[in-house]
Amino acid sequence: MEILKLVSGKQDGEIELEDMPKELQILCEILNEPYKLPYFLETYYSMKIGDEQAFRFSLLRVQVDSDLRMNEDIQKHQQRSYVARTIEKLLYRDLMLEVVEGAEFDVE
């Protein structure tokens, strides 16, 4: 249930896996069993993502949550973060939360 809430971004109410888009269902499966990731790379690469922005934010939520909970179970959360980063990089070619060395940011 924790993964369903995290991936969907919904804290309240019941969330049914069957009601979620296919890409989120697969993500939940892989987050539960990270060693399945290699078998779903082609699936994600060729899949038409229904709402790409919502899916990317699902991946970001997993990364942030994993970073925040790293001390609870380091292996579990490192694997979850790796799964989310790998899928994000595969689909979007970059990581939204990645720090780029030498990049200059204008803050006004």
Fold and architecture overview:
The protein is 59% helix and 0% strand. With 108 residues, the protein is an all-alpha fold. It has one domain.
Features:
single chain; 5 helices; 59% helix; globular
Strand content: under 5%
Number of helices: 5
Derived structural class: mainly alpha
End-to-end gap: 41 Å
Q: Strand count, sense and closure of the main sheet?
A: none
Instruction: Please report the total strand number as a whole number.
Output: 0
Q: Helix and strand string, N-terminal first?
A: HHHHH
Identify low-pLDDT runs: none
Query: What is the share of helical residues?
Result: 55-70%
- Described by the principal axes of the CA atoms, the overall outline is globular
- Kindly report the average pLDDT value: 89
Number of domains: 1
Q: Radius of gyration, Cα only, in angstroms?
A: 14 Å
